[in-house]
Design goal:
By secondary structure, this protein is mainly α. The chain is 72% helix and 0% strand.
Length: 181
């Protein structure tokens, strides 16, 4: 694969993952954000360079300004995007998109009268705490053993009862034990 084609593939991947639809999907199922393989901000920076990566993050930051009813200068966006890459380069792109979506949904600090870099950075710091808790939660959920059958049955007994219930269309049994089926 040539360097140009890998850059093109990365740009295509970024375009797909920075849509408003993706932001809503991430809000509705954040576990996908943490489980999905995605390049980090620093990996993107190394492939696309400073100018393109800052422009990419700047667009998302401009969304925050727009949704807050404020205008912001390009210089402010460049400065903030550069700082985010420097401090949070380990963040996956889709995690950054989730942060923007949550910010726009009102989950973090509000902006009053002007676009405030400090409020954005404090919100990103809060997001990092949320991220740590989310990842910890999803890792615990993954490691929990799944129940094979209700405690009042042995696995074989439950299997036989479930087969009987399906054959006889026993909706009461099937509804009661649907988490095991």
């Amino acid at each position: 694969m040539t360097e140009t084609s890998s850059v093109d593939e990365l740009v295509k991947f970024i375009d797909i993952n920075l849509t408003a639809t993706k932001q809503l999907q991430f809000l509705n199922s954040p576990e996908k954000v943490y489980k999905t393989d995605c390049p980090t901000l620093m990996q993107i920076y190394k492939v696309l360079g400073h100018k393109r990566t800052v422009a990419l993050l700047g667009k998302r930051l401009a969304d925050i300004a727009f949704n807050s009813g404020m205008s912001v200068t390009k210089e402010v966006l460049v400065s903030l995007a550069s700082f985010i890459i420097s401090k949070y380069g380990f963040l996956k792109l889709n995690e950054f998109v989730l942060f923007v979506a949550r910010f726009n949904a009102g989950e973090y600090e509000k902006l009053y009268n002007k676009f405030d870099n400090i409020a954005i950075m404090r919100s990103l710091s809060t997001f990092m705490d949320d991220r740590e808790q989310d990842i910890s939660y999803y890792n615990r959920e993954i490691s929990k053993p799944k129940k094979v059958c209700p405690s009042e049955f042995t696995p074989y007994e439950f299997y036989m009862e479930a087969c009987r219930a399906k054959r006889n269309n026993d909706k009461a049994f099937l509804n009661k034990y649907k988490e095991y089926l």
